[in-house]
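Quick one, T. Sequence first:
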Amino acid sequence: MKLGPENPPTGAAELGERFGTPLYVFDGEMLGAQARAFREAWGSGATVAFSMKCNPLMGVLARLHQEGCWAEVASGFEYRAARRAGVGGKQIVFNGPLKHDDEIRRALSEGATLIVDGTEQVDATVRFAADAQVDARIGLRLTPPDRIGRDRFGFTPAEAAVAAERLAAAGLAPSGVHVHLGAYQLGPFSEIGPPIHTVTVEYPVPISRFTDAAAHALSVADTIGAHEFLDLGGGWPAAGPQLDEYVAAVRDTLGCDSREVILEPGRALVRDAGWLLTQVAARRSDGSLVVDAGVTHAPCVLWKRSPVTPADPRPGEAIATDVYGPLCLQHDVIARQTELPPVEPGDLLWVGQAGAYAIAQASPFIHLRPGAVLLEGAIASLLRARETDDEALGVQAEPLLVGRNGVAVTT
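Structure tokens:
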């Protein structure tokens, strides 16, 4: 059976007993297949750089790197994690609106592709020009054409021209441009409701936005003389007929342009190759369930409907069931009115499409973060151990317990 979000791995009971629940589970064979299919859809002349922000596990990145993927990072932390995962500096695309001086200096010295976003980063890059490897590459992030004037990321064409001149004067003329569309967009401010209500989510990004962005990037790159690469960011669909349609449309827009195309897929590569294994803790009188995984373990369920599948289905009629997490919050809901057969406490459930933005955004709010494993056939390897109290508490000082007279007491 082909694995997918509704056809999770076998051996849930063994995984739960060995590693505990909740548990993130990633299928290495599927990760490899997705990476190969994505690269093959684009063919030669394209570089696929996995967007680490959607899944920061070094083991997941290393598995994708085995298939030829670079790393796209959006912070110094992600840059360091990519290097520790075995990705060379020359195979890293360094994005992000915040880059500290030491991080810019390191990226330049290791020959990374540094995407400059904002005049402050232009200033820092110029300061460290002497540290840059000869083959270090500089790109300018552009504001998407349909977001100019209402987006905090990137340069307008006029601003890009000024930035390019400054960098060229320092010996670091930009060799490419970058434009990222993203699935999350900030809409007009609303006088009522929480700020989150102004955010829209659209994945994959509409094909027309990609073709418009490609044309925009091509035009600006020609204007500033950036002749080496065009980075078209993320937001792509997973490999398949839909991706093929996107590729054809963008390639038609680019025409015979010979520049390297860099792509930064995240969820397209890993979403369907990851699951969250959870155990049923209780049933309620209304037929709903309480499980040991909540929205702090899979924040992605707040934005989309993730499939929930029993690991070992019991016989009986499926009914619409609410699946709640363990937090003392009403909004801690994994799924609403999802069709499930009879389920009893102790049963295991798979939450699908948990490969992207689940482990990346998980927090130790009330409950600790789960461990994570990688499956390669029948072999399960630990990628990250379950979080401990000490790890969650970090470097907090132990509280001083004070008695009635101000004298420290012990417990």
